[in-house]
Amino acid sequence: MKLGIDSYTFHRYFGETYAGLETDPGSRWTVWDFLDRASGLGVEAVSLESCFLPVGDKDLTGEIRRRLDLLGLERVWAWGHPRGFHSGKTPQALEGALASLADADAVGAKVMRICAGGRGTRPASWAEHKASLLPTLEQLLRAAEARKIVLAVENHIDLLTDEIVDLVETIGSPYFGICLDTANNLRMHENPKEAIRRMAPYARATHIKDILARGGNPDTIAFWPSVPVGEGLIDMSFALTALRGAGYDGVLAIEIDYLAPGYGDEDAALEKSISYVRHLLAGSVPGRLT
Q: Burial, 46: exposed, middle or buried (Cβ in 10 Å; 0-12, 13-18, 19+)?
């Protein structure tokens, strides 16, 4: 497993803020700033959010690939923020996903994380939801298989554990799996350990995320903000053990979305997270991954 970071951690610096929760940091990053920071942190991999990059810029993707190769960074390409295919309601999004798949190929990514939807897009019926998603996902999958790129659908607060496992098993392709976000199923009121255990065998990418409960409406992100890994409710030792036991050898991409007040800024939280996960992987946190 390779320790990495997802560029969404610095979403405020790429110009996105959560209305009513976050403030603009007053400065902007480029993809080069992010890659320089990843290199400075000594991680082995990055997950690049396509929403912060232009689509189809061959000069840019070529330069990104060269920089990643120079830095020796494994890479995951990430498409679909914030709602992806809107739970199958916007099949026209396939055109954007296909264009992003070409960009993934251009930067040398072997895995592309995708989002099927979000909390606000999921239908009441799983049968309806699944039937809406399958035709579009299968079309995207054919293109991914031709490029030998694995699609990893995220549990993006839109799919319960049974649903995402059913989706992957129904599609039944070695080029289709899960981007396992360690925290999102708790945000859907599921037991995170059971969710992680069930999804781990199908993991092809990850978001290593820790959260806590602040109070208020539990159906909002304000209730479940991110915190540095190891300081929240997610048993990350269990998560990494489950992934390792399932034979996962991909990227452990630390991600911070809405950082809880009182935990400093994203960079400080990220440094704490990287240190904690490194100690877990080394077996130097008491009682963890020994």
A: buried
Residues 6+ positions from 58 with CB-CB distance below 8 Å: 106
Q: Looking up tokens 């092809």, which residue turns up?
A: 204
* Residue pair 83/121 in contact by the 8 Å Cβ criterion: yes
Only one residue has tokens 């699944």, namely 130
| Residue 25 in tokens | 């940091």
DSSP for the chain reads: -EEEEEGGGGGGGGT---TTT----S----HHHHHHHHHHHT-SEEEEEGGGS-SS-HHHHHHHHHHHHHHT-EEEEE--TTTTTGGGT-GGGHHHHHHHHHHHHHTT-SEEEE----TTT--S-HHHHHHHHHHHHHHHHHHHHHHT-EEEEE--SS--HHHHHHHHHHH--TTEEEEEETTHHHHTTS-HHHHHHHHGGGEEEEEB-EE---SS-TTSTTTS-EE-TTSSS--HHHHHHHHHHTT--SEEEE--SSBPTTS--HHHHHHHHHHHHHHHHHT-STTS--
> Nearest-CA neighbor of 276 among 257, 259, 289, 263?
289
**pLDDT tens for residues 15-55?**
999 999 999 999 999 999 999 999 999 999 999 999 999 99
Q: What is the rounded distance in angstroms from the CA atom of residue 135 to the CA atom of residue 85?
A: 11
Does position 286 have pLDDT exceeding 60, yes or no? no
The model carries a pTM of 0.97
Instruction: Give me the pLDDT at residue 261, please.
Output: 97
- CB atoms inside a 10 Å sphere around CB 153: 28
* Closest to 279 (Cα-Cα) out of 234, 224, 236, 243: 236
3: its two tokens: 């320790």
Q: Distance (Å, rounded) from C-alpha 134 to C-alpha 34? A: 34
Contacts of 287 (CB under 8 A, 6+ apart): 237
Please tell me the distance from the alpha carbon of residue 83 to that of residue 123, in angstroms, as a whole number.
13
